[in-house]
Amino acid sequence: MIKFEKISKRYKEGTLALDNISFFINKGEFVFLIGPSGAGKTTVFRLLLAEVKPTKGKIFINGEDISHLSKKNISLLRRQIGAAFQDFKLLFDRTVFENVSLTLEILGKKKEEIKQRVEEVLFLVGLKDKGNVFPVQLSGGEFQRAVIARAIASQPKILFADEPTGNLDPKTSLQIVDLLKQINKGGTTVIMATHNIEIVDLLKQRVIHLDKGKIIKDQQKGKYK
Amino acid sequence: MAGKFQTALIQIRRSPYQALAAIMIMFLTFFALTGFTLISLGSMAIIKYFEKAPQVIAFFEKGKDLTQDQISSIKNKLDETKQLASFKYVSIYEAEAIYKEKNKSDPLLLELVNYKILPPSIEISAVNIDTLSSLKNILESQPGVKDIAFYEDIVKSLSSWIKNIRIFGIGLISYLLVQSVLIILTITGMKILSRKEEIEILRLIGASNWFIRWPFIFEGALYGVISSFLGWGAAYLLLLYTTPVIIGWLGDVALLPVPIWLMLLILAANLIIGIFVGTIGSLIAVHRFLRK
């Protein structure tokens, strides 16, 4: 489903974020992307969303090379992928409902359809009564759930979650991971970047370990160390 | 589309002062546009009135009608020029009737004047106002002519004034239209820059360029619609308010009140120009600021 083929990424200022990495992620997999800050985890996400282009190598999603897409095709690609960003990227002047409905509006869904789907998703992430509140009125865990709700609203086949438990307490972190597992059970491929040792060790899923832009470990049912 | 229009309304609500500035400036444009359109149409009607009215009147000896032979002879000489548009002989009795009609409210004037002291006259107009002078010369040379009233200068000077007013109007409106486009461009540009982060987020979750652009374009078009309607409304109110004064000024020229269908036609034209100006301004802005 997702294939990185000898990918290197060097930013304009000279930083080598990824250095000749290759991996393959199957449909329906749950993969942890781990490593210290600056290891290249966020660059992997940015490449998958075609936010940046690889310096070398090719990236395939469902067999399609996404390394050098046109602007129009980049939009189409992003509509197929759900992304929960490290810096959330919620719109603060819109309610939770409006934030979640955005992805469906972009897909051109009808108003009734949007309403129904957003309600379903908010129920799934446990924010059924928070649709009319603004993001600033949410707790840390609720905030992250809202981000995930927006990411999955369009029922994407792939979900990226970049540090979704970053600032959360252990209990809330577990709830978020449970939610991601639930989404994964529905058939969605989930890739989660994290620093959270407990969660990685507890879930025993595939772990791709990055360090200084290289893959130093890629284990099925892996652990953080 | 309805969703994007709603987004445009939300954008306006979020920055009411920018919206107000855009509408107020564009309002002036459409107020001037409606005003000059009315002046232009009015002046055309005034010119037509003067062109249709007798342009040369020859007065003969008071209290003594011309014979039919004299009238025919004068008409034949004028006809030879092939420039005669109209010819009318006004007898002393007709002159008395016209005088009485005009002064029916003043019995003293009616008592003092009768056909015996009024001159018969010949009223003519030319096919082309430029040939009026030669017709006047023919008429002037006829025996018995005591006085000549000649309107060529009035019509020519009126035409010249109206032409200048039109040129000034077109110049001013063009300037205001360009200014309106620039204002919309600047305000839309400011809005795009202030919503840069939001636009970035929309792009990251798959929004196409047009999904992002449409609300800005609707917003510009909406400013155009609102301001063109307000500009038209204000000009129309001013016209209605000043109608009695203008009617007094114009005298016999039947120009007012302006028919409602004409005002609606001007409104439709204003709205079309408003949408065009607003859309062009915002299109340039989105093209310039959303390029990436």
Strand content of chain B: 5-15%
Estimated share of beta-strand residues of chain A: 25-35%
CATH homology-level superfamily of chain A: P-loop containing nucleotide triphosphate hydrolases
Low-confidence stretches of chain A: none
Counted beta strands of chain A: 10
Quick one: biggest sheet of chain B?
A: 4 strands, antiparallel
Strand order within the widest beta sheet of chain B: 2-3-1-4
Helix content of chain A: 25-40%
Q: Name the pair of protein chains with the most residues at their interface, and give those residue counts.
A: A-B, 24 and 14 residues
The CATH class of chain A, by name, is Alpha Beta
Estimate the mean pLDDT confidence of chain A. 90
| CATH architecture assignment name of chain A | 3-Layer(aba) Sandwich
Q: Poorly predicted ranges of chain B (pLDDT <50, ≥5 residues)? A: none
| Class by alpha and beta content of chain A | alpha/beta
Structural class of chain B: alpha+beta
Number of helices of chain B: 10
Tell me about the biggest sheet of chain A? 6 strands, mixed
Structural write-up:
The complex is a heterodimer of chains A (225) and B (292). Chain A is of the alpha/beta class and 225 residues long. Chain A has one domain: 3-Layer(aba) Sandwich (Rossmann fold), CATH 3.40.50.300. Chain A is built from seven helices and ten strands. In chain A, the strands form two sheets. A six-stranded mixed β-sheet of chain A has the order 6-7-8-3-9-10, with helices on both faces. Chain A has a four-stranded antiparallel β-sheet with strand order 2-1-4-5, covered by helices on one side. Chain A starts with a strand and ends in a 6-residue tail after the last strand. The model of chain A has no long low-confidence stretch (mean pLDDT 90). Chain B folds into two domains: 2-50 and 156-289, no CATH class; 54-150, 2-Layer Sandwich (Alpha-Beta Plaits), CATH 3.30.70. Chain B is of the alpha+beta class and 292 residues long. Chain B has a four-stranded antiparallel β-sheet with strand order 2-3-1-4. The mean pLDDT of chain B is 86. In chain B, helix 2 crosses helix 9 and helix 9 (209-250) packs antiparallel against helix 10. Chains A and B meet through helix 2 and helix 3 of A and helix 8 of B.
